[in-house]
């Protein structure tokens, strides 16, 4: 039986070193990805404060870009909201509306920052931000939106009290 060649050990050592670097990079990527996710959406786990008068209050922190992004639900399904007080309605990207099994209603022309577009009317059985839930809310299905974010517009917000101070947005029902 022959003795192992020194070159066999050096080749194995090189592969072990490469594997160690790959695992290290993968772990660092996962770690920093979670940090970036939290900076982009610091409101992933909302808590609702119930006040003495029975009203409910949710406090949102601004993302690193200064937007108010938060997890919520539509018809019991988890979604991602971007608070937009300039939007008349809750605006849902078409691919998200399909995932939520929302029905396209009558077309309506709306004015956006990019000009007039056609969206499709729909009604949401329920929409929730934390424990604040509203029922039978008008929304629009937007064929031009690409991301996962749903614009949480005034058809939801007009029924609530909103206060913005520094980097926090307080929403009270």
**How many domains in all?**
2
The CATH topology assignment of the largest domain is Cathepsin D, subunit A, domain 1
Per CATH, the architecture of the largest domain is: Beta Barrel
Q: Helix tally?
A: 3
Q: Which CATH class of the largest domain?
A: Mainly Beta
β-strand amount? 35-45%
Series of H and E elements? HEEEEEHEEEEHEE
Say how many strands there are.
11
* Helical percentage: 25-40%
Show unreliable segments. none
Overall residue-averaged pLDDT value: 87
How many strands, what sense, and barrel or not for the largest sheet? 7 strands, mixed
The chain-level structural class is: alpha+beta
Q: N- to C-terminal separation?
A: 81 Å
Descriptive report:
The protein has helices spanning 6-40, 94-99, 154-157, and strands at residues 48-50, 56-61, 69-74, 77-83, 90-93, 107-112, 115-129, 132-142, 149-152, 161-165, 168-172. The chain is of the alpha+beta class and 173 residues long. It folds into 2 domains: 1-40; 48-172, Cathepsin D, subunit A, domain 1 (Beta Barrel), CATH 2.40.70. The strands form 2 sheets. Strands 3, 4, 5, 6, 7, 8 and 9 form a 7-stranded mixed beta sheet that branches. It has a 4-stranded antiparallel beta sheet with strand order 1-2-11-10, with no helix packed on it. The chain is extended, with a radius of gyration of 24 Å. The mean pLDDT is 87.
What is the element layout, followed by pairings?
Blueprint lengths: L5 H35 L7 E3 L5 E6 L7 E6 L2 E7 L6 E4 H6 L7 E6 L2 E15 L2 E11 L6 E4 L1 H4 L3 E5 L2 E5 L1
Parallel strand pairs: 4-9, 5-8
Antiparallel strand pairs: 1-2, 2-11, 3-4, 3-7, 6-7, 7-8, 10-11
